[in-house]
Amino acid sequence: MTDQTLKLAPSILNTDFSLIKKTLEETEAGGAHMVHFDVMDGHFVPDITFGPAFVASLRPLTSLLFDVHLMVENPENHIPQFIEAGADMITCHAEVCPHLYRTIQTIKASGVKAGVVLNPATPLYVLDDILSELDMVLLMSVNPGFGGQQFIPSVLEKIARLREEIIKSGREIDIEVDGGITHDNVKEITNSGANIIVAGTAIYSHEDIKSTICHFKKRMGIVV
User: Fold this and answer.
1) How far apart are CA 193 and CA 177, in angstroms?
2) Structural element, H or E, at residue 137
3) For residue 1, what pLDDT is reported?
4) Does residue 103 contact residue 92 with C-beta atoms inside 8 Å?
5) Domain chopping of the chain, boundaries
6) For residue 166, what pLDDT is reported?
7) Which residues are annotated as a binding site?
8) Does the active-site annotation cover 47?
9) Domain spanning 7-220, CATH class
10) pLDDT for position 148
11) Which one of 111, 136, 160, 202 has the minimum C-beta count within 10 Å?
């Protein structure tokens, strides 16, 4: 079972890595709940970001939860390394997991929370036979691979339908949303049923990270 209170997961993909220790300190001081890692392999998505060694190097620097989003082909080949690196939760794309149930069970067997990611055009019915096994569903609200994209409005209805299905299931499953989320649209997203918000540019494009996180949390509906 998961805690479905509202949570903010800043994506460090949008940070200045030369200042990463200071960034993590300010992120934690601002009251963020976790750090989101967008792991890209240059195959499933065009860009390449970072691997488990980078995640492991940051683990001693913060007590925040590490939320690892694998935008990679053959994620089952990489899951053990990210678990060893300190991931607290791992999400994999349904689009690249032919044996999705086995992949989820591999993650959960290590005591790490497991989730499935759906691209904007991937229908919710792909979760029909796996939803009961999940701790989280991550709905992409942009096409994955690049930061700074515009939120796709039709995802709001998708969030609401997924929340209805979760309520019917009687389970407590987090809905995380990632892509194009700003101070202006975040409340509409949480009102639709999302409870974990990933934001990169909206957080780290500002010099005062701590204050920006506090303001963003207020916009989400979190009492600061």
Assistant:
1) 10
2) strand 136-140
3) 35
4) yes
5) 7-220
6) 97
7) 11, 36, 38, 69, 145-148, 178-180, 200-201
8) no
9) alpha beta
10) 64
11) 111
**Tell me: the pLDDT tens digits for 120-167?**
999 999 999 999 999 999 999 998 866 667 899 999 999 999 999 999
- Among left, alpha and beta (phi > 0; psi -120 to 50; other), residue 42 is left
Annotated catalytic residue, options 129, 174, 178, 184: 178
Question: What pTM, to 2 d.p., does this model score?
Answer: 0.95
Contacts of the segment 165-173: beta carbons below 8 A, 24+ positions apart: 165/124, 165/127, 165/131, 166/131, 169/131, 169/132, 171/1, 171/131, 171/132, 172/1, 172/2, 172/3, 172/4, 173/2, 173/4, 173/131, 173/134, 173/135, 173/136, 173/137
Q: Mean pLDDT throughout 86-115?
A: 96
Tokens of 178: 């990632």
C-alpha pair distances (Å), 93 with each of 25, 74, 209, 222, 223: 30, 10, 30, 29, 32
Q: State both tokens at 11.
A: 């994506």
- Using a pLDDT cut of 90, give the percent of the chain over it: 89
What's the pLDDT at 149?
A: 74
Among the options 38, 41, 67, 135, which is catalytic? Answer: 38
Question: How many Cβ atoms from other residues are within 10 Å of residue 132's Cβ?
Answer: 11
Annotated binding site for a divalent metal cation: 36, 38, 69, 178
Question: 208, 214 in Cβ contact below 8 A?
Answer: no
SS3 label, residue 114: strand
